[in-house]
Amino acid sequence: MLKIKAIRPELLTLLASGFFLLAFNQALWQHLLRITSADGPGWLLRGAFVLLVLAVFNLVLTLLAFRWVLKPTLTVLLLCGAGAAYFMNQYGVMIDKGMLRNIAETNPSEAFDLLSLKFVAYLLLLGVLPSWLIWQTPVNYRIWHRDLLSKAAVLLGCTALLGGVALGNYQGLSSLFRNHHELRLMVTPSNIVGATSSYLREQLASAKQPFHIIAGDALQAPSWQKHTRKSLTVLVVGESARAENFGLLGYGRDTTPQLRQQDDLISFNNVSSCGTETAVSVPCMFSNMGRNGYKAEIAKNQDSLLDVLKRAGLDVIWRDNQSGCKGTCDRVTLEDVSNAKDAALCNSQECYDEILLKNLQGFIDNLQHDTVLVLHQMGSHGPEYFKRVPKAFEKFTPVCTSNALNECTKEQIVNAYDNTILYTDHVLATLIDVLRNNEQKIDSGMLYIADHGESLGEYNLFLHGTPYMMAPEQQKHVGMFAWFSKGYQKSAGFDSQCLRGERDKALSHDNLFHSMLGLLHVDTSAYNAGLDLFANCRQEATIAQQ
Questions:
Q1: How far apart are CA 229 and CA 238, in angstroms?
Q2: Is the link from the previous residue into 383 a cis peptide, with omega within 30 of 0?
Q3: What contacts 24+ positions apart, CB below 8 Å, involve 290-294?
Q4: Are 323 and 110 in contact (CB under 8 A)?
Q5: Residue range 310-334: average pLDDT?
């Protein structure tokens, strides 16, 4: 049996601080080496930074170094730190409130995609094993007043070290922290503590918010109410679909061969997302706040675009093949097809996006009212891009078949991702074909917009979720396409040729709320014509009496 000599809590906190520094912060040290010079002053700056972090770690742990507190705290930090270190090293992610929100709101299928034997190894070697050693180590606590004196001495020493390092390297350190805000999101496990605190504050603030009704005066315009033909507006919410990998948007590969053949398809080249993760982008794009005014705690407790459309008299349905609508569809009809039983379109874990179109013809045949149908795709969700695509659409090979993307070549990752865009192309083209085949029966239109983009190894980043201000364009520049039947254009009163001229206009998720209200002729004081994509192309039309 392992026998370990008893140690003082001050030594344990110092050893733990050193372990955190060395074991959990590989990504931080690599980044620090890139952003600092390799000359003498650069090495002095690096050394000062290391001492600064070590002193802060030890100071905080010393404040927690009490019986019944220290070991449980260290265990939690070790296990969480091991997990964070894995994802930071593997995918280049940063740990902030948004990333923690992603973790909290993901579904089991998405979570499982991120797990691997390497993750288990990280957890065992950097989390479980040191935690076990800590619990096997006796800690010699002194009588309370002597213990307090010891802690005071350590705290004084840490404070003196912090002051000395800060004063001795003030110019270099101040410049480093001023120019590289990302550093605070890379220091593990303090980033976990900060993110958890921010997320819990957000949840508490949300729980205290009263529900806010917006656009309480929403009503479809009298002119629209006069038309006799039923309308179907399909809003497709893409997933992780970055604009630069769509052939129609200028990509070198033809990843959109079927959409290219669609008459009257309109593509938009310059569209930005509200966030870099689904948990922010989806609620934000369906709200009227805009990116700059968006607050998650408020969005959760007020009407979304879907609520406004429902209030105006439209049928609203959210059909989901992903991890849910993040609260956006809570008060409208929800159809979860992600776990459907279909041998051709589903496996034991998930369904391909064509499941969203299953029985669409029957749905159209039985359409009773003007309807907005939202289709939420699995799309290009990583890291296991290959899982999102039927074998028939594996055009670009070889593909990465691992969730550890840094173990694949850049070519394999891009191939696997491009196949997901190729499949999205097929799904959208199939949807348009169904709508076109029903032009004699209903007025129909489709608007596709992705929730955010994706990093495929640029700047050593993978996936998405990088804080917006630091995120590369690949995570913010998204694909957007539109198609409308001739009858829909006539009823809605806009000119598609004019709209095609808007393709290079700078647009964003901020436009969705007001564009949908304008497209569907919903009169409300909440409508802002300046953010309506269709406003400049809308005619003073008389709704056809059909």
A1: 29
A2: yes
A3: 290/510, 291/468, 291/508, 291/509, 291/510
A4: yes
A5: 93
Query: Considering Cα of 282, then 288, then 291, then 295, what sign does the dihedral take?
Result: negative
Q: What is the DSSP letter of 272?
A: E
Per-residue pLDDT tens over the stretch 125-139: 999 999 999 999 998
Tokens of 320: 């989901």
Amino acid at 372: V
Domains of the chain, by residue range, sit at 9-205, 221-537
Q: Give the residue among 306, 410, 347, 435 at the shortest CA–CA distance from 109.
A: 347
Q: Which residues contact 144 (CB under 8 A, 6 or more apart)?
A: none
* 189: preceding bond cis by omega (within 30 degrees): yes
Q: 3-state DSSP: the chain helix, strand, coil percent, rounded to 5?
A: 50, 10, 35
203 confidence band (pLDDT: 50, 70, 90)? confident
DSSP bridge partners of 371: 232, 315
Q: Convert the pLDDT of each residue in 256-288 to its tens digit.
A: 999 999 988 999 999 999 999 999 999 999 999
**Cα–Cα dist 229/251, whole Å:** 39
User: Measured in whole angstroms, how far is the alpha carbon of residue 389 from the centre of its chain?
Assistant: 21
What residues contact 414, with CB distance under 8 A and at least 6 apart?
245, 396, 456
Dist. CA 420–CA 521, nearest whole Å: 34
Instruction: Report the C-alpha dihedral over residues 269, 275, 281, 283, rounded to 10 degrees.
Output: -130
Instruction: Match domain 221-537 to its CATH number in 3.40.720.10, 2.30.30.40, 3.40.50.970, 1.10.760.10.
Output: 3.40.720.10
Give the tens place of pLDDT for each residue, 395-410: 999 999 988 887 899 9
d(CA 154, CA 462): 40
Cα–Cα dist 416/410, whole Å: 10
DSSP assignment of 281-336, as one string? HHHHHTSSS-TTT--HHHHTTB--HHHHHHHTT-EEEEEESSS--TTTTTTSEEEE
Quick one: tokens of 411? 């070519």
Helix H, strand E, coil C: the string for 168-217 is: HCHHHHHHHHHHCHHHHHCCCCHHHHHHHHHHHHHHHHHHHCCCECCCCC
| d(C-alpha 425, C-alpha 259), whole Å | 6
CA 427 → CA 361, 416, 431, distances in Å?
15, 17, 6
Q: Kindly report whether the peptide bond that precedes residue 72 is cis, defined as omega within 30 degrees of 0.
A: no
Task: Please choose, from the candidates 272, 285, 291, 238, the residue with its C-alpha nearest in 3D space to the C-alpha of residue 420.
Answer: 238
* pLDDT of amino acid 441: 92
